[in-house]
Amino acid sequence: METKVYQTDQLQEAAQKLKEGELIAFPTETVYGLGANALLPEAVKQVFAVKGRPSDNPLIVTVANFEMVKDYVDNFHPLTEKIVETYWPGPLTLIFTIKKASLPPVVTGGLSTAAFRMPANKKTRDLIALAKVPLVGPSANTSGKPSPTTSEHVYHDLKGKIAGIVDDGAAQIGLESTVLDLSDATKDPVILRPGAITQEELSKTLGIPVLLDKHLVSESEAPKAPGMKYKHYAPDTKVLLVKDGDWQKAKEWVKDNHLRAGVLAGPKVSEEMRYDTACVFMYSKDTATAAAKGLFAGLRALDDAALDLDVILAEVYPENGIGAAYMNRLKKSANQQYFTAED
């Protein structure tokens, strides 16, 4: 199959492909998504097949406007209107209990709930409006691997497997959306996956403490939202998290064991490690925001087979604000493993 790259003036053609059941990757402000007509079960099944994604992992339904959500949900949480007015379009996914049989079970993972998102990227909202159907929109990559933040990443993973990619440059945020559970109208919202819209920001906006569910789903459990498994976003190369005070020890460990190590860090650590390791992927600044934007691109770059690395050493950041989202993804990419002096 030829995978075509669509530009702005070709959205109608891409929308027609979606209506016909083909798969089209699309840009968002977070990462690139893999689009299929959410109302065509056979098209959705192709998403699972192409990604190699477990069938119990529910898919996010991507919409052009809030009116589309009303076709599938009629019992909204009391805070829905305030949340939607404040954050949509944007990097926030909302989970609702849906009308019975309103969406195919392959979309919901057999659950009575579904996740909905309206991305800030206008090109993708226009694409959905032209297709006149909601789209499933998981990350457009091989399941379990680092998510794609450019159309080139998508092409690398899915070339020849999907009909096309709508190109809109690099994603501005670089990590998947915050997922907020609003499925029980009698309970306060809970964050199931942290993202750029932070726990602190949501709590301030809503005037209530918004909790973050840190429960990690085992392989035998069905997740309520994407990205809740223990290991996810992982390159083939082993990743170890390195705490602030452990970089000198890590440098000595690399040297003593004759390892080819890559470093994924901000400018300060990168400069410190660059002469003692095989290669460095440096974030643009020593901030959690810059780390979040560069994480997936960095993991992909350092996992290049041509580098033949034994290990990737990654910098940790405080788990507050967007740092919580960064560490959520990084810990899963490393399967929760930190560097220790005993390594």
TrEMBL record:
UniProt-annotated binding residues for ATP: 53, 57, 113, 139, 147, 193, 233
Role of this protein: Required for the formation of a threonylcarbamoyl group on adenosine at position 37 (t(6)A37) in tRNAs that read codons beginning with adenine.
EC number from the UniProt entry: 2.7.7.87
Organism per entry: Enterococcus dispar ATCC 51266
Catalytic activity: L-threonine + hydrogencarbonate + ATP = L-threonylcarbamoyladenylate + diphosphate + H2O
Protein's recorded name: Threonylcarbamoyl-AMP synthase
A GO biological-process term: tRNA processing
Localization, UniProt: Cytoplasm
Annotated positions binding L-threonine: 30, 117, 177
